[in-house]
Each structure stands twice: as structure tokens, then as C-alpha cells.
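hey so u asked for the seq, here:
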Amino acid sequence: IKSSYHAKNWSNKESGGYIWHTTGSGKTLTSFKASRLATELDFIDKVFFVVDRKDLDYQTMKEYQRFSPDSVNGSESTAGLKRNIEKDDNKIIVTTIQKLNNLMKSEENLSIYQKQVVFIFDEAHRSQLMNQRC
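ran it, C-alpha cells below
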């Protein structure tokens, strides 16, 4: 993230990266630590951890809260996601791809669109939505 930012290369699709884990190898802890480190970067405004299912949303929230109780925001709805985005804090936002998609389709002028954000996707290979703006 730092090297892409300093190279002014963040909008180039080659500037991203991925971490691959096998089942049971500590993926949740790794994603939490990567997310926390990203929230500490002064040039990052928000960090999103995006999952593809409600049960994974709940499970991730529970695990993240176990790692650090006051470091994460979750939401039950798209409206709750919008409220979390508008908060002036550096908490990780855990959400589903469906809530994120619904919000982006219904809100064309969110202030977050003008900010530097990090998206971390879990299980991204399982579900894909067409016409995403992210």
C-alpha cells in the first residue's frame, strides 16, 4: 500500500496485491492485521473488509472483536454501512459485497468516493457481481 501510494500508482490495477492462504492457516488473523496496519497509514481514510455472505460477515466481526474489541464497525443494513462510512474514525468496516453494491448503486455522491480507501476481499473467488464501481 505504501509503495503504491508513494509511486502515485494506486489507480493502476497492477498496484494491488493478494495474500493466499489454505483453509485453517490463519487467514482471519492475517486479514485483521493487514487491515489494522492499513488504518494506521496517515494517507488512508477508510479500510473495508468485504465478504460474500452474511454468515461470514458475522463470523469475521466476532473474530475481529475478539482480536481488538474497539477496532471494527459492522452493520446490519446498507443504511448502517453508510453511517459507518460517515463516521470520523479509523475502525475497519466489515461488510458484505451485497451491502456495498446496494450503497454504491443508491448513493452517487458519497464523500468516500473522493477519499483514499483500502478494500480487502475475503473469498473473492466465490461470488462476483457485475457492474461494480469499486
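The longest helix spans residues 54-67. The radius of gyration is 14 Å.
lmk if thats what u needed
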